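Document type: protein sequence-to-structure record

Subject area: structural biology

Format: plain text, a pair of labelled lines:
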Amino acid sequence: MAKKLLLFTDLDGCLLNKHDYDWRPAEHTLNRLADLGVPVIVATSKTASEVRALLDEIPICPAPFIAENGGAIEWGPWQGNSDASENTGPSRTVILEILNSLTTRYRFRSFETLGISGVMKQTGLPLAEARRALNRQCTEPLLWDDTDSQLARFRAELDSNQLTLTRGGRFWHVAGRTSKGAALTKIVDEFGGEQTVVAAVGDSQIDQSMLDLADLPVGIRVNGTLSVRVSVPPGIIPESEGAAGWAEAVSEILDRIN
């Protein structure tokens, strides 16, 4: 491969199917990436605990990963220390204090409010995985139960507290002024070069900052609907969804570069 490819990817709805969290439809493409030494850099709303458990199963090259929508970067093996991590925003404790001050004026359910049983019900995750999902460092997902006009006021109050509100695939996510795109930039600045090609795969609004910075953005439909902006070409919108669509698009990227 003449050029160095850095491949950033969301998980749910992309490398993982939305309905069953299965990555195996992409297994052949993942093996091809591993054979070529191409790092797959996960960028997800999931916690570091969740990502580590998944990476024990998925056959990819050792690489950093982005957790909690850019709020945390786990540098790991690329810095010679599997525990090397960086939080880029305020702690979850700070976020929860602000959210708790807003509960009398707005109707929403955060992960903290849902608790372990509520997270299991809303996500379909088994107990061990739900516990990992609750092991958050710097973001808080929530379900919005109020009106659209209240949502605008809620967003403004968060903004006044230096927090952001972004729509993900299933939940709204409250975080500091962090993003997947900002975390991508940090990793590319550290490990990229003149011959580096950056590809990014996403399916929801929370992935847009990452897609906007990629040389080769990939937008994956969910239930027939594309929720991200991707210019084609050079971007790719595969016909299939989930892991099969991921494999289709990434295979095209590899064919272009080789």
In short: The mean pLDDT is 92. DSSP finds nine helices and eleven strands in the chain. The chain has two domains: 4-87+179-257, 92-175.
